[in-house]
Amino acid sequence: MSVEEQFQSIQSQIQEACVKSNRQTKDVNVIAVTKYVSEETTRKALEAGVTHIGENRAESGLEKKKAIGNQGYWHFIGSLQSRKVKQVINEFDYFHSLDRLSLAKEFQKQSGDSQKVQCFVQVNVSGETSKSGLNPEEVISFVEKLEAYPSITIVGLMTMAPFTEDAEKTRPIFKALRELRDEVAALQLPYAPCSELSMGMSNDYRVAVEEGATFIRIGTALVGNETKAD
Ligand SMILES: *Cc1c(COP(=O)(O)O)cnc(C)c1O
To answer: Is the CB–ligand 1 distance for residue 56 below 6 Å?
Structure first.
């Protein structure tokens, strides 16, 4: 299937999940994760109507963005080393992996005073040791401490669920992230509206949408994986 056909198929799956959960499709944004594909394929995604692009490495992400130009919104979805903040801060619209104060401090240092850095706090809901992110019970106090870094806006929470053949198993993880998001939003901190939920990937996005995802990050199922021989 072409990228365009894949995108249409994903959109109809989203629609189904929205009907099931009484949500509106306009509240679900698809991020095309282009880390495994070329510039050409990334362009095809934009031509097919995708408006959000996700990259997880500073160098390759910047290279791709430079080649493509200022189209769409760019999301940095990988873990970010503090020393790379300077390179990416003005190039990406959203950062999905804020997980430590040292990174917040670097965002503050590298941003102009008036500039807002839109971040998701990454949460390790499943507790797998291989995953990064804060433990759920650390999130509230972490967000409270971010008051010291006025450049940062917390737009929402992000998680990666463990890979499983049975996507239904990820439901409790997505539900827990939504409940935590609601708790943070209820604090009504001016710098943390925290209305968004970045969760769901190729194998589990339908369940994530049913549980309230507002940004789903889809690589393989949308643009494929050009690093794997088929
Ligand atoms: C690679 C990646 C994705 C997309 O994974 P697929 O399974 O190919 O859809 C989503 N989120 C993050 C953080 C990633 O690194």
So the answer is: yes
CA of 130 to the centre of ligand 1 (A): 15
In Å, what is the CA distance from 211 to each residue of 144, 168, 173, 200? 25, 11, 9, 10
In the reported structure, the alpha carbon of residue 31 is separated from the centroid of ligand 1 by a whole-number distance in angstroms of 10
CB of 120 closer than 8 Å to CB of 98: yes
- For residue 79, name the pLDDT band (cuts at 50, 70, 90): very high
* CA 148 – ligand 1 centroid, Å: 31
- Residue range 6-60, pLDDT digits in tens: 999 999 999 999 999 999 999 999 999 999 999 999 999 999 999 999 999 999 9
Give the separation between CA 8 and CA 213, rounded to whole angstroms: 18
Reduced to 3 states, what is the DSSP secondary structure of residue 229? coil
pLDDT tens for each residue of 56-78: 999 999 999 999 988 999 999 99
Say yes or no to pLDDT of 230 above 80.
no
- Structure token pair of residue 229: 């021989």
Domains defined along the chain, listed by start:
3-223 (3.20.20.10)
Q: What is the dihedral of CA 57, 65, 73, 192, to 10 degrees?
A: 40
Is residue 82 within 8 A of residue 124, CB to CB? The reply is: no
